[in-house]
Amino acid sequence: MFKFAALLALVALVPSFASAQVQLYGQCGGVNWTGGTTCVSGATCTELNSYYYQCLPTASTSASTTSSTVPTSSTSASKTSTGTSSAPSSTATAAAGNPWTGYQTFLSPYYVAEVNAAVQNITDPTLATKAAKVANIPNFTWLDEVAKVPTLGTYLASADALATSSGNKQLLQIVIYDLPDRDCAAKASNGEFTIADDGQTKYFNYIDQIVAQIKAYPNVRVVAVIEPDSMGNLVTNMSVEKCANAATTYKACITYAIEQLATVGVYMYLDAGHAGWLGWPANLSPAAQLFGQMYTATGKSPFFRGLATNVANYNALTTTSPDPITSGDPNYDELLYIQALSPLLTQQGFPAQFIVDQGRSGQQNLRQAWGDWCNIKGAGFGIQPTTNTGSTLIDAIAWIKPGGECDGTSNSSSPRYDSTCSLSDALTPAPEAGTWFQAYFEDLVNYANPAL
Ligand SMILES: *[C@@H]1O[C@H](CO)[C@@H](O)[C@H](O)[C@H]1NC(C)=O
Ligand SMILES: *[C@@H]1O[C@H](CO)[C@@H](O)[C@H](O)[C@H]1NC(C)=O
Ligand SMILES: *[C@@H]1O[C@H](CO)[C@@H](O)[C@H](O)[C@H]1NC(C)=O
Ligand SMILES: *[C@@H]1O[C@H](CO)[C@@H](O)[C@H](O)[C@H]1NC(C)=O
Ligand SMILES: *[C@@H]1O[C@H](CO)[C@@H](O)[C@H](O)[C@H]1NC(C)=O
Q: 286 in the Ramachandran plot: left (φ > 0), alpha (ψ -120 to 50) or beta?
């Protein structure tokens, strides 16, 4: 009885909650949406797709259809994503050549805020001055959970406004990273979706929301890295049960992502591990076959520009003194790996270009084993982002992993604990994956090479 009364009281509260005004760029409708449906003054609730209605500035909604009736009930699921069976019609035309050419890279306000907060906490003025420079170096925004997708809309709007006010065309860098049963061979970066709980449908919905946001800002160019580690796991970790079980879903999800993002003109680089993973001679051919298969399956779109290597890793782009841990692998740096993989991709009909993460590659010879990936002690920021890469195969050197965000916790009681994060070459104590790790950031600044 008491419970029933409490329930009634809760129900009575719902209408006032539902009618609360939604902030600019907030979600205001879509299948199963239970939050507010009325936007603040100056914004209009706009259908981007049946899953996602967003409060957009009233003047900039021309590309979409404004709707006054917003589906909020669970019975309005008139459409479900069906992936490869819904052939996407490409509406965008790819520019030839390097997507960065002619564009200025937009700085993520989130990372800028993180860095600026971190700088406040640095007492050594020399270090603080160097650290502050990091806020002006573009990296990628990781859309590692669906809740972060609306933020993309705010960045796109800011980039669009900046392009208008500055006269410089803007390019926004994102990482698509939310596969169901994500990171099937590790624990630290386990995602929010599971295959068992309809993760594929949820992933398609995540992609639909991203596509809808990007579609509303056709003048902002978007470059995306697709799903770090997933393809590498399918090449080398099929003996891990979780990876074997995930293979079909990974491929279906990535195929859907590439096809849908191509329709709104996103330039994509699928993650290709790194020299110490797929660069081993025995792994090169199977990797090239898998990438070729993905390229063909997604219609050989010119927006599927190529592959991203060394994402969140520590390898050098080139080195004249190979790290002893690389012994036995003739492809002991990223350029050697790319030069070895490229002709095999060409044989598969995939003329892939590359981007290479150097965000934490400033110092070398730090690791006990090449497979160690977690908060490596002594790492420094590496070569700063540039399209002057020294190789015609490489479109850009980038900082893809936002330096200072933690790889994984060293707390062995945490459910996401991975023992790699408390090895002797990892900096401890480390907080949860994705959260700010101040001591690590300060080391990256301190050991940056070239110096900041
Ligand atoms: C909407 O809710 C219903 C009932 O809970 C559920 O079966 C359906 O999968 C949901 N749809 C989406 C797209 O989440
Ligand atoms: C900065 O220091 C304050 C006070 O010690 C602390 O609450 C905050 O979490 C620190 N921020 C970072 C980014 O470490
Ligand atoms: C990259 O990350 C740094 C801090 O880790 C941040 O200051 C910067 O704004 C980020 N850039 C982008 C484009 O996200
Ligand atoms: C995944 O494959 C890599 C490369 O062969 C290997 O080093 C790693 O131990 C594997 N992970 C698991 C959990 O088996
Ligand atoms: C370690 O994780 C456990 C479980 O999440 C938590 O209760 C504990 O406070 C954590 N310890 C530290 C030092 O953060």
A: alpha
Closest CA to 398 of 33, 98, 42: 98
Distance from the CA of 412 to the center of ligand 5, in angstroms?
8
What Cα–Cα distance (Å) separates residue 171 from each residue in 6, 158, 255? Answer: 51, 11, 23
Provide the 10 A C-beta neighbour count for residue 224: 27
| Ligand 5 centroid, distance to 420 Cα (angstroms) | 17
pTM for the structure as a whole: 0.79
Both tokens of 163, joined, read 């392009």
pLDDT in tens, 371-403: 999 999 999 999 999 999 999 999 999 999 999
Phi, psi of 309 (to 5 degrees): -120, 160
Q: Are 28 and 70 in contact (CB under 8 A)?
A: yes
pLDDT by residue (tens digit) across 81-95? Answer: 333 333 344 567 888
As given in the structure block, the two tokens for residue 373 are 């990936």
Residues 376 and 374: their CA atoms lie apart, in Å, by 6
Closest approach atom of ligand 5 to CA 415: 5
